[in-house]
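ok here's DNA polymerase III subunit delta':
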Amino acid sequence: MDGRSCIVAELLPWQQSVWQQVIARHEQGRLPHALLLIGPEGVGKRQFAEYMSAWFLCSAQQQTPCGQCRSCMLLGHGSHPDRMVIVPEGAQGTIKVDAIRQVSEFSAETAQQGNGKVVLVQNADRLNVQAANALLKNLEEPPARTLFILWSAHFTRLMPTIRSRCQQLAFSLPATEDSQKWLVQQGIGADQFPQLLNIARGSPLKALEYHEANLLQVWDEWQQQLIGLQAGRVSVSELAELWKNRQTGMILSWLSDWISEAVKQMMGAAHSTTGLFLPELLSAAIATARASEWLAFYEKLNVLRVQLDGTANLNPSLALETILIEWSRLMRTSSRSRVDGKPVRN
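and the structure:
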């Protein structure tokens, strides 16, 4: 070695306690052949999986990857022969059986660096049925010194038999103070991170993603667009087409949060998102006084989000039009007495 080091992966500050769980299991001889990392989006499950794979393959056999051995160097250059990453592919974003067949071939080979092999499966809930069954065979008869690391923000969508073959590591949202400190370290100003964290529902990585994509502007725009739809200035088809080109899943997630906040306020709960949603739009929704209908719509919307996010072959434009037509119907009562969210004076 020439003395140089290579940063192959890093833990996020709030992941230290989970990492200590892994080390404890390893030292007690209880490290499983398959792990399932679960928790909400944007808490760093992928980063943790990358870090753990670097540690598992590292020749130094310490509590952290050394960054200096040949294995770490290969990982740093993205060319480690004993590591395989499976990601969703194609227009539907699924993991298909051909990818898992490659895993079977890979795991049957001898580790070239001699430290074992690692298979990473990103968004494991995207496995289609054939792929899930093929992966299950690998998990039921694991090759020696092969570690499988799966992760998912929607782990209940995974086949129960796959979940039962993996030990779970749970990740939760970090404390607000920890998230804010980390966001400042990423160069986000103190005047921005409170709103970013609110929009991201406490997820620091999503907050960073929103910041880098300049989505604070989009956040303001989508609510104004709903007001325009309510006032008749924009049609359902026009808005559906616009939203289709603006990260459909993200906006539907925001709409789901908006409905949740409206229902909470209908039920008399304190405002949990002060300054996050336009008050005139929430007031118009609350004026309909049909919490049960909004809840039914909420369930329908979230089912559609799962379908759009998964393997269902849906037309995004038609799906969005369906949602916006239903939203308009529920807002119709209040729109008779309001224009642009403001009461009409007789």
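+1. Residues 54 and 299 are 41 Å apart (CA to CA).
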